Amino acid sequence: MDTLQILLDFFTGYGYLAVFAVLLVCGFGVPIPEDITLVAGGVISGLGYTNVHYMFLVGMAGVLVGDGIMFMAGRTFGNKVLTFRPIARILTQERFEAVQEKFAKYGNWVLFVARFLPGLRSPIFITAGMTRRVPYWRFLLMDGFAALISVPVWVYLGYYGAANREWLMTMVHRGQAGILAVVALLLLAVGLVWLRRRRMACAKK
Q1: What are the VTT domain coordinates in residue numbering (predicted)?
Q2: Which of 64, 117, 121, 159 has the fewest CB atoms within 10 Å, counting from its CB?
Q3: Residue 39: exposed, middle, or buried by beta-carbon count in 10 A (0-12, 13-18, 19+)?
Q4: What average pLDDT does this structure show over 149-174?
Q5: Does the global pTM surpass 0.85?
Q6: Minimal CA–CA distance to 38: which of 130, 123, 115, 122?
Q7: What angle do CA 165, 62, 97 make, to 5 degrees?
Q8: Whether pLDDT at 151 is above 90
Q9: Residue 49 DSSP one-character state
């Protein structure tokens, strides 16, 4: 039985609460695909078990609360959080160093990109909290902006594809590539604006 079917069976029985709980677990670094979880939430809405608009709100709440807990764990406990075995498994020394390097290179935009990097999402959010250089409102803004791109895509895709599983899975794969392409374009635009401002600042000097 595939992951989507397992989630559908679970969500059909427990509705919004089940979707929220699984998204929360995804935020903790458990290897359950967040995109498939959101798609499954949309599918049960398409089948009439829940309201798709409420499911979108539940999806947003689930991903933001899960991410926020990881961020606050790092912010509250600092390096001590690495002594907690489940987090130590997610945030290895190699990942910690890699994330720090990305922060030094790209700044707060790493928080935006993290939503689209399943293997690095939790380590990035924990590290952001540990540095204590990122205020919670900025973390929430960057993560929320990214979630507003990904969450509605998956939930409404599941809703519209509920009756045609084969078409749905084809669109899921295309959607993954499409979201990454959109993110890449956004980052390119941001990079070009930053480069232009830097050149203008250098010219004034």
Answers
A1: 32-159
A2: 117
A3: buried
A4: 85
A5: no
A6: 115
A7: 105
A8: yes
A9: S
